[in-house]
Amino acid sequence: MCAKRGHLAAVKKIVEHGSPVLCTDNNGWTPRVAAEKVGHTDVSSFLTNEERCADR
Fold first, then answer.
1. Which SUPFAM superfamilies does this one have (predicted)?
2. How far apart are CA 1 and CA 11, in angstroms?
3. Architecture of the domain whose range is 2-54
4. Displacement of CA 54 from its chain's centroid (Å)
5. How far, in Å, CA of 16 to CA of 12, rounded?
């Protein structure tokens, strides 16, 4: 929800506390996709980087 609403500071805090960035919602969207769909490029960019780290 924070990602979709563009709350970058909240997204960073949630990720910092261990929330998985590759989880999906009822639509099958990750937080990054949800942020992209509504134009929150700052949140999307942050989550893209976090997804790369999660894949390692």
1. Ankyrin repeat (SSF48403)
2. 9
3. Alpha Horseshoe (1.25)
4. 12
5. 6
* Orientation angle between helical segments 41-54 and 8-16, nearest 10 degrees: 20
CB 41 within 8 A of CB 9: no
Residue 53: the pLDDT is: 79
Phi, psi (rounded to 5 degrees) for 28: 85, 10
What whole-number distance in Å separates Cα of residue 55 and Cα of residue 41? Answer: 21
Q: Which of 20, 28, 9 is nearest to 53 (CA)?
A: 20
At 23-43, the pLDDT tens digits run 999 999 999 999 999 999 999
C-alpha–C-alpha distance, residues 33 and 45, integer Å: 10
10, 2 contact by CB (below 8 A): yes
Amino acid identity of residue 45, one-letter, is S
